[in-house]
Structures are given as structure tokens and as C-alpha cells.
Amino acid sequence: MEDLAIVPLRPGDLAEAARVIARACRGQRCRDSVRYGRDFDELSGPLLSEEAAAGSTRIWCARRAGAIGGLAGLRTGEIAEIRFLAVEPDAQGRGIGSALFAHVEAAARGSELLLVRQWIDPGDERAGAFLAHRGFRSAPSPDVMLVRPPAPVPDAGDPPPGYDVRSFLPGDEALWERLQQEIFSDCRAVRFSERYREGPGFVFEPEGFLFAFAGGEPVAMAAAVTSGPAVPDPPFTASKLDWVGVKEAHRRRGLARLLCLRALRFLAARGRDRVCADTQLARSEAIRFYESLGFSERFVGARWVKALRGA
Length: 311
What we know:
Order of helices and strands: EHHHEEEHEHEEEHHEEEEHEHEE
Structural class: alpha+beta
Number of domains: 2
Number of helices: 9
CATH topology of the largest domain: Aminopeptidase
Largest sheet: 8 strands, mixed
CATH class of the largest domain: Alpha Beta
Radius of gyration: 21 Å
CATH architecture of the largest domain: 3-Layer(aba) Sandwich
Distance between the termini: 26 Å
Number of strands: 15
């Protein structure tokens, strides 16, 4: 298409670009639509603004005769991720998607892998065929998101004998990081400030970060995380239970349930009554635990991967 130009998205184009995403993704079931319990008519604007605010996400639009016909977002790194790729429904089949993809792939050349996982409806055969034709392979997703719809939260009760519970205090960043590594030793180390104070998407509220102690030693943790300012609230009231875990020697004593119920009540008191939690499909015990707390919706997203180095 001779008159097609791929250019960076300008701040003044956000509203028009959001309408393109809304029309292109209408009716699709992807991670964010399940998380927020909303469709893309409502979500596209806030979520695109959130992506634009993330310094690691680059966004391009395809312009034809001055109008936006499609857009794509790329988050770069060792593993580059296509955050979204959308084309106006009445402009599909005219090479816009292919042109955007070629531009994104060229921008990701320094990465080892190119990943697609966020925006694909698992049942979207057309999108799957588009990616397969461009060298992607479908890879089973190891993760599952569970959602607890709005519902009353039972009383958490008291800690078992010998245990105390408290919320986050000033200076607890190092305690949180140490406990995160001791409980989740199979995960990479996470800097507290990187996840909760610097990155987009979360609001840090100390009362929602909970620890359980035995003899003065921290043995369990759970965090009630609320949506960041880029996603207005209300009406987007989805929140998350994050990094829920108990040291092995202290498991099966009700600590995880106690912390999670207190975290859920903390969120409910603030009107955050739709809550999600992430775990891995292989952790069937964790899935059953969340389901016992009322997490009744599941979402397993599509995941597509393409090797770039040596390509």
C-alpha cells in the first residue's frame, strides 16, 4: 500500500487509537477483559493510556490518508513482547497488519524471542493463523488467572496459636524481598520498589500488605494490590492478590487463608470487589485453594513465540 505510513503514536492520537482497538477487539475474550469484567468498548482507552505511560512500551500506528488504520505496541527486552496489534475491521485484508508486524519485528531484532500472549483471544483462529504464517509457534501457557467476582468475604478470624499478623511498616521492603526469595525460591528475585513503587499498574497501600510471624520471624505473606492510576477507578475495580505464600514448615495451618481473607476484606472495604490471582496450571493445589476462596472464573491465554536470534 503506497500511501501507508508506520509512524510513532502521538499523545494527541490516543483517543482515535483507542477507538480503533475497541472496534478491532470487540467481543474478544482476552486477559484484561476477563480481569476487569468489561469489554474493549470501555477498556481500550484506559489500557492504551497505561501502555503509553510505560516507558518500555513503544507504540506505532499505521496511517492511511491521514486516518489510523491500525496500531501495534512492543515492549522490548531480552524477550520482546507484542503488547497488541489491531487493525480497523473495515481495513483488514489490505496489508496493514502485515506492515505493522514487519515494523515491530524489525524493532525487536536485538531480542532473543518475540512473544505474544496478552491480547490474543484463545479462540481466535484468524489471529493464530496470522502468527503461524509469520513463523510463530503456539506454546502452551504455564499460567492461569483466576477471578473472584463480587461477593461477600467471610470473616478471617484470629491467627492460630503462636502466630501474629501485621501489615506493612516503614522499612519492611527488605523483609518483603527476603521472604519472597525464601518462599518462592524457584522464582527470580524481585525488588520491592521495582514492582510496587516504580512500575505502572499498581497502587501501594501498606495496610493491604500482610505478614504472618512465628516467634518474631516472618513465615507468610500476601499482598492486596489495587489498580494503578492509569486505569481509572471507578469503574475499573479489578484488584489482585499478589505473592501469596507460606514457608514450608508453617503450611497447612490456615495462614494463607487467614492472610487472603484479610486482604480480600481490605479490598472490599475500598470498593475493590473484583479480584484476580495468578498461579501456574501445574499447581493444582494452589488453584483449589483460590477456588475455595470464591475464585470461580478461569482464564488461560494463548501464547505464541518466535525465535529472533539467528533468524
